[in-house]
Amino acid sequence: MKKLIALFLTLFTFSLFAQDVAVLKYKGGGDWYSNPTALPNLVKFCNDNIDTNINENIQTVEVGSTDIFQYPFLHMTGHGNVFFSEDDAENLRKYLISGGFLHIDDNYGMEPYITKELKKVFPNNELKEIPKDHKIFNAAYEFPNGLPKIHEHDGKAPQAFGIFHEDRLVLLFTFESDLGDGWEDPEVHNDPEDVREKALKMGANIMKYVFEN
Questions:
Q1: Integer Cα distance of 210 and 96 in angstroms
Q2: What is the 3-state secondary structure (H, E, C) of the chain?
Q3: Is-above-0.85 flag for pTM?
Q4: Which of the residues 26, 84, 153, 165 could staple to 88 if both were Cys, CB 3.0 to 4.6 A apart?
Q5: Sheet hosting strand 21-25, strand order edge to edge
Q6: How many CB atoms lie within 10 A of CB 212?
Q7: Tens digit of pLDDT for each residue in 39-91?
Q8: Which residues are within 8 A (CB) of 165 and not within 5 positions of it... i.e. 6 or more apart?
């Protein structure tokens, strides 16, 4: 009995201090695998700068798999089509309302597809623009003007949209910002260092918010 208790405490301590995160793989033909260096770089930045202990070995998980429940944070990106089956949508909804968090970063061109598919996940809950005074914008670093602009596409201002469940932000959709491009290795997009730093700091805010709320 004592050995079982000791094992439980060991596993509990490990799970408390070592977190896994994952990239969400979806159907529809969109490039869910884009920005491959983005999340690993963000995790390293968080571990080095805001005292997180996140596994730098990033996992991949399918949206319809019960394995998503192993991860407190899922990251989703791409440029094109997204499709959720009814089973996918139900699985994702259960994950989110039971404590999970999904960050969707539009890598340009994803918005019309993901907006439609999210209606399957939350039929009665619209994406709402997140106010600039929300704590996700100051969890670790201050962004008084809200979401930073990382890559220019259509000359539009960056926007952060969310879905809330019982007053908890469970889903963040970053649009016209392209945070993931700023998280990638420097030589991929040749962004100025200050632009990459803004992207990584905003990403750190997202991670800190997820692990504390």
A1: 12
A2: CHHHHHHHHHHHHHHHHCECEEEEECECCCCCCCCCCHHHHHHHHHHHHCCCCECCCCEEEECCCHHHHHCCEEEEEECCCCECCHHHHHHHHHHHHCCCEEEEEECCCCHHHHHHHHHHHCCCCCCEECCCCCHHHCCCCCCCCCCCCCCCCCCCCCEEEEEEECCEEEEEEEECCCHHHHHCCHHHHCCCHHHHHHHHHHHHHHHHHHHHC
A3: yes
A4: 84
A5: 59-62, 21-25, 73-78, 101-106, 168-175, 159-165, 128-129
A6: 9
A7: 999 999 999 999 999 999 999 999 999 999 999 999 999 999 999 999 999 99
A8: 96, 97, 125
> Two tokens at 57?
């070995």
